[in-house]
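Re: weekly structure request thread

Next one in the queue (254 aa):
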Amino acid sequence: MTDINAASRILADAFLNHTLIDPLPEDIAPTSFEQAYDIQRATLALTGAKQAGWKLAVATRAAQEKIGADGPLIGPLLDGRILGDGAKLTTADLHYPNIEAEIAVVMKSTPAADATSSDILDHIESIHLAIEIADRRYDVKQNPVQTLADLNSTGYFVLGQEIENWRDLGFIGGTVTTKSDGEILATNDDPDAWPEIFGGLEYLVGYLGKRGESLKAGDVITTGACALPTISPHGKIEAIFDGLGMVTAEISKV
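Done, posted below.
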């Protein structure tokens, strides 16, 4: 039987001590997404970390259908781990840095719990190019349920340049490439493989509303990988969005 308290203590200790762990023992591990969310919330509380936004993963319908989810998987972005373009990290900061080119949203106000994707547009302050550097506490990659419990693999986040006039641009679906030290990690030119950015926001707003929570001004939401997430232990990281610009970070080896 899933033990929320025991599981969250293990994950919180791993986060706070920056250590790698084995999979959660079978007798306390979550067996559903709802149990994983319960563990995630308890883990976040035990860490004492301050939440500054949200991350969406598994952000396309095809990916969601594959794992039996009814929408993207949700996790926290943490205060102190949202960095600016050109951010510098080291291998001491990360276990398995998973590089994801993403589109991020910064909120200016709170949408209603039943807001549609069209309604939510008026509550957006800005939209940005970004890099998520996801990370996990498990020594071996786990299934989506265990991953979700582990703060949905939250790590660090690089908020890049603002996309000007985003309402008027057909920016969704252009070619996106990630690189490490000039070597291509992943590239995507298929618009169907982009995350459903505004649909994902609608799902997030509804998810939070059911729990008595809401988005608020200043929240940062990253909406899912625009090219295949790829682990790069270290290097100069680039996320290149053709026609829009690029975002960079550096992970130095120590």
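The longest strand covers residues 124-134. The two ends are 41 Å apart (CA to CA).
Next request, please.
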